[in-house]
Amino acid sequence: MADKIRDVILESGIPVKPVYGPEDLGGIDSAGDIGKPGEFPFTRGIHPFMYRQRPFTMRQYAGFGMPHETNQRFKFLIENGQNALNVAFDLPTQMGLDSSDPLAEGEVGRVGMAVDTLADMEVAFAGIPIDQISVSLTINAVAAPIMAMYFVAAEKQGVPLNQVRGTAQNDILKEYIGRGAWIFPVEPAVRLIGDTIEFCARNAPKYYPVSVCGYHIRESGANPMQEIAYAYSIAREYIRRGLGRGLNVDEFAGQISFNFDIYGNFFEQISKFRAARRLWARIIKDEFGAKNPSTMMMKMIAGGGGGGLTIEQPENNIVRGAYYALISALSGTQTMALCSYDEAYTIPTEKAALISLRTMQILIEEMGIGDTVDPLGGSYYVESLTSEFERRMADEIKRVDEEWGGIVEAVSAGILQGEVARQAYQFEKGVQDGSIPKVGVNRFRMEEEKRDVALHPYDSKQADESIRRTAEVIAARDAGTVDSALQKVRDAASSGQNTMPALIEAVRAYATIGEITKTLKEVFGEYAEQVRL
Amino acid sequence: MTNKPIRVLIAKPGLDGHDRGARLVTLALRDAGFEVIYPGLHQTVAKIVESALQEDVDVIGLSILSGAHLPIAEKLMNELRKAGMDDKIVIVGGNIPEQDIPTLTTFGVAGVFPSSSRFEEIAAFIQNNVADKVS
Q1: pTM value?
Q2: Model ipTM?
Q3: Into which CATH architecture does domain A37-369+407-433 fall?
Q4: Which residues of A touch B26 (CB under 8 A)?
């Protein structure tokens, strides 16, 4: 008797047949739906020659301790061939607290670098040519003042505002869904994003003010289809805010990029990204009436996600990282990053970070991955799955609008968070009962496993150093200038004017992130989390 | 012995916002028949002690992924002792390196469940430890 053919249903709920053929391409228009790379709807990629012309950027997330330590890690990565940076800030900085704040105790410099003032930013980028290295700032609730610090630090290096390049994560709506580094209530928090979008469109047109993160929504438990759908619901909201400032969609929407996640089924991820490019192009063109094709290009960092890595048999994560990198390249990403094999234990050691970087370099240098664009284009399976993904993503976006009253309402009421958590729970039960296979966890498990992972050291004394440094900065600055700058921040925040000019003035006067955040809290208040489980 | 259901407070102390684990354990322990309160992110130690008292919980489960588990757990155990609440069973979950488990135990933490621990293991631990206290 022949073995039974297994049923396969992807995490996104899509059933998969054992074989695909020409009949599965019915309804797909090869010119209108698939098209050519570099042309609408960009299914095959946003550039005509992709990696043949310009390899993907490699941008590992890095940052820890004091700014000078992070500066050394940045230089190490650049010396080893990384061509962009992604800055990790510690939790106090992300939450708008100075190192000296009692709530920062035990957290200073732990999961990223500690930044209290512009002086820290200057140290972090000392000797790094930020006109050539594109820098991404992983900062959200306090993105506006941290961007202000970065702009002033760039100016001090001789890079004027209208030439400054880089990206801020600056996606607060996803923080309420996953990652949790929120401070202000939803409405003023989203308004600050509007401020940054407007300010950059008018003053820093090469800067990407927002990177919308499906990544963390996926890491919180959303399936790959929902990852894109919820990210697009969020991005549409930010675009509406930009339009509300009197900007034309072609003036700013092309500077909104995306940060997506890779783990799970191989072809599911690749088809997800191809569908996502097509759907975004259509949304920007049809819903927002963009005229410029470059506005319609979905630009992304697609990174190997921590959610796929295991604490068990950690070296297996190196292999997973290599597959994730391959998926990322086959998906036509602009930028790639990989979680390192030790991230279930620690922030990456230098060794682990280097293995991640080398993984991406091996792929582009040795494997011929960049020889031809979208090599899976035209595959019966991949094209069929791409179209199915696009349909389901569009339906889910509609569901957010029609059933939940839009993304702001869904997030404010905790509905989306509850949905994602319940799904994460079903997934985890599947891993625990073995119905979702995970090597080293529920397949080929080794019970008395010796785990030999070096931990990144943490020095709790560095908080004292940060506090001392900032005290020196405070002693040297002009108190009157700081007070009047903070007053301007308060006035702008309460009057509804764009806060960015006042924030730039405040950071230039060496106001601390804690002082600025406190000023904004006085006007905006604080978010009260709605837990629905 | 009482048939009162076991009450558990799942708490996310400090600044860490990664709550997938806290939410999973909340749902799993509810399915296991416990009454579970999860008040959300960014709880101070003082707030956790206050909630534990008000909600009259048997167990406090701390979920920490930032690496700050040692200072936070030590502070919580001290505050519980000061408040005369050392009868609460405290367990810790999250990104906890093996080498830190003995230290957590010396602080008075009853059980440590690093990432990837099984739900049934956590539920059984709570069941057994609370039962030991009442009997």
Answers
A1: 0.96
A2: 0.93
A3: Alpha-Beta Barrel (3.20)
A4: 533
